[in-house]
Amino acid sequence: MKTFYIETFGCQMNVHDSEKVAGTLLAQGYTQVEEPEQADLVLYNTCSIRDKAEQKVFSRLQQFKREAGKGKVFAVLGCVAQQEGARIFDKAPHVSLVCGSASYTRLPAMLVQLEAGERRVTGLDLDTGETFETPFTRRDNPHRAYVTIMEGCDKSCAYCVVPFTRGRERGRTSQSVMDEARRLAETGYTEIQLLGQNVNSYRDPSPAGWDFAALLARVGEIPGLRRVRFTTSHPRDFVRQIVESIDANPVLANQIHLPVQSGSSRVLERMQRQYSRDEYLERIGWIKAARRDIAISTDLIVGFPGETEADFEETLSLLDRVQYDSIFSFKYSPRPNTAALGLDGQVAEEEKGRRLTIVQEQQRAIQIRRHSELVGRVEEVLVEGYNQATGQWIGRTTQNRILNFTHASGNGHSLLGEYLPVRVTRAGPNSLAGESV
Ligand code: 5AD
Ligand code: SF4
Questions:
Q1: Sheet holding 73-77, edge to edge
Q2: Of 108, 215, 115, 198, whose CA–CA distance to 162 is shortest?
Q3: Does 87 share its domain with 170?
Q4: Does residue 49 line the site of ligand 2, with CB under 6 A?
Q5: Ligand 2 within 6 A of 11 CB?
Q6: Are residues 90 and 76 in the same domain?
Q7: Distances in Å between the alpha carbon of 134 and those of 4, 22, 164, 407?
Q8: Domain with 226 in it
Q9: Which residue among 144, 159, 318, 354 is least packed, with the fewest CB closer than 10 Å?
Q10: What is the CA 162 to chain-centroid distance, rounded?
């Protein structure tokens, strides 16, 4: 019996790719194990969005180097695989398989080559035009399912590796997305998260020709689904119709992630983001004008080359203006192949750290204030877990907030996967606490 172990770094796209890879391996007769020591085949699905993420895989490979002698096969998948290619064999000679996400459909064939005794196999073709779909996908979460609608990215943000690691945009047919979503709903999934590097630029390759707003609205009508989310959006391609669809159908969750990256139009231009601060704020205006209370989150980079103190203050003023429900903020990290490498005005590491701390403190205060306004409200949660230590259930609201709660009826039956009304009794910066009603 052949066994495999897979560890995933990076975004939801990667998490879902790993579910597909695991399903593919299971269909090939492998069994999944929980520890790398027990596996014949060890796979790392990697991320290279920032240098720190990239270093993780090399430290893992270093850690288990000696195991390679015992017949264990090591594989590097995902964004570092695509970015570094065969150079990975030089850095970590015990690796046998290097494969980027655009070549995953070839994985079964590559495994056959390895089993036949080939020492080194690569899948690095970036322009395959393929979307990796499998009928075997083995999903980790029994209630929320990720569904890929498109892969790749055609934008050229000056800081970003994704166009180099995931290739050109390619959409999946609306028919195939709808069929999978219906099948998931029939088998008991109640939440679906539509995935793509830029879902807003989704184009149905079939004659039906749906755009993203149309696809989103149709998925939201599938019987059995309670929540539909999507990630990630690009402001340039974000249209008002998406907000209108959400407004019209409560199944489409009250949550939009709209990465801004900077509050300064000058920096946005240098980043090649293709929108200005005002154009971004116009989209925020659409979302805030909705009848539903749609939570807004964002991604931010501080210390992009050429970012002055005045630019940075514009980011702070944007945070004040938008009042985000949550943010993900990062220090700019120079990446191979990207346009920003050649820009002057690199910001010192220490200064990036200072700006990041300021951003995070300001946002923390905003979240504490916004969360405190929720105390007393009743929110519907999907129950996702149980915390033994605190005796609290872990729920998630339609706005994607974590709401930890106690539940009176002590008959011990599991609440996992249920939708329950919970009254908010306490607010912290990153989560809420409450009791079921
Ligand atoms: N340095 C820092 N952050 C980055 N991101 C993307 N590329 C970089 C980089 N080179 C951030 C962006 C993006 C998120 C997924 O990661 O904010 O939206
Ligand atoms: Fe990391 Fe970006 Fe690749 Fe996702 S697409 S794994 S965030 S580099």
A1: 31-32, 3-8, 41-46, 73-77, 95-99, 121-123
A2: 198
A3: no
A4: yes
A5: yes
A6: yes
A7: 18, 10, 24, 39
A8: 144-372
A9: 354
A10: 13
Residue pLDDT, tens place only, 261-300: 999 999 999 999 999 999 999 999 999 999 999 999 999 9
Does residue 337 carry a pLDDT above 70? yes
Residues 6+ apart with CB under 8 A from 187: none
- 365-396 pLDDT, tens per residue? 999 999 999 999 999 999 999 999 999 999 99
Cα–Cα distance, 222 to 113 (Å, whole number): 42
Q: 429: domain CATH number?
A: 2.40.50.140
Q: What are phi and psi of 175, to 5 degrees?
A: -60, -45
Note the pLDDT of residue 16. 98
286 and 174 in one domain? yes
139 within some domain: no
pLDDT of residue 411: 58
Q: Could you tell me the CATH number of the domain that includes residue 100?
A: 3.40.50.12160
Block residue for tokens 């669809």: 245
Does residue 228 surpass a pLDDT of 70?
A: yes
Same domain as 42, residue 112: yes
Q: Is the shortest distance between the CB of 78 and ligand 2 below 6 Å?
A: yes
Task: Report CA(434)–ligand 2 centroid distance (Å).
Answer: 35
CA of 224 to the centre of ligand 2 (A): 31
State the average pLDDT over residues 246-252: 97
Task: Judge if the beta carbon of residue 259 lies within 6 A of ligand 2.
Answer: no
How many distinct structural domains can be found in the chain?
3
The alpha carbons of the chain give a radius of gyration, in whole angstroms, of: 22
